Amino acid sequence: MGVDRAEPAGPGGRGWGRRRVLGGGALLAGGVALGAAGMSQGAWLADRHLPLSGGPASATVGNRRQDVGSGGLQVVWHAPTTRRLVALTFDDGPLPRWTPTVLDTLDTHAVPATFFLVGERVRRHAGLIRGRLARHEVGNHSWRHRDLARLAAADVHDDLRRSHEAIAEVTGTPPRLLRPPYGHLGGGVLHAAVRLDYRVVLWSLQMVEGEYPDDPAGHARRIVSDVVPGTILLAHDAGPENRQVALRGLAAMITGLRARGYTFVTVSELLAHPTGSRTGG
């Protein structure tokens, strides 16, 4: 019968034999393996109770064939062009006082823009835009400006479809662009967008009204200096009072950008011909 050779004593004066060390290692390895398996099983059980497939985080729905429109989705922030083209966009309308002011200014200067409309407001204020969007483009900005990235894919689709139908009915043009509220892109948003054959349009520059309270001219100068070729510029025709700074300076912004050689185009024109020319603007 052999005897283990004693190992040097530790700080507490207790020695560790070879068998004891090997046995402890085996127990430790077994515990790690069991722990990993337990964690994996626990995660699987937890996931079974989360709305993952078809939920806000997932861009896939179920295990059957998916209705995914053209099968692909484009998400854009900016157009790759060296030509001095800029797309002016307005979110959140239509609303009284705001939208008519914007349309009047754009009409005066013969400038096209892209309006990302809220469906419920389109229904409620149809008279503000009916017959006034001939030179402009419309996009979908949801039914009631909820954060779509927090909704399940089916709910996002229902929301956008409802808004789509309202915009098409009132304007006579079905929207082909989507800008989700706050620019939030959850998986459910992407899935609904591809089903509806939308392009998702974000922005590369936005108004900074809070930095220029009561200074529309200063704000206009700031935006004019920040625009580069291919810019998609975010503005609003709704919201808190401080946003009026941008609208009061809109004419100066248009004049300033034209003085720099810029031509105004809609988003779709910008994306369709990023290196081409366009007359007017």
From TrEMBL:
GO terms for molecular function: hydrolase activity, acting on carbon-nitrogen (but not peptide) bonds. Residues 84-265 form the NodB homology domain. One of its GO terms (biological process) is carbohydrate metabolic process. The keyword Transmembrane helix applies. Coiled coil: none annotated. InterPro entries: Glyco_hydro/deAcase_b/a-brl, NODB_dom, Polysacc_deacetylase_ArnD, TAT_signal. PROSITE patterns: NODB (PS51677), TAT (PS51318). Gene3D superfamilies: Glycoside hydrolase/deacetylase. Keywords: Membrane, Transmembrane, Transmembrane helix. PANTHER family: 4-DEOXY-4-FORMAMIDO-L-ARABINOSE-PHOSPHOUNDECAPRENOL DEFORMYLASE ARND-RELATED, GLYCOSYL TRANSFERASE-RELATED. This is Polysaccharide deacetylase.
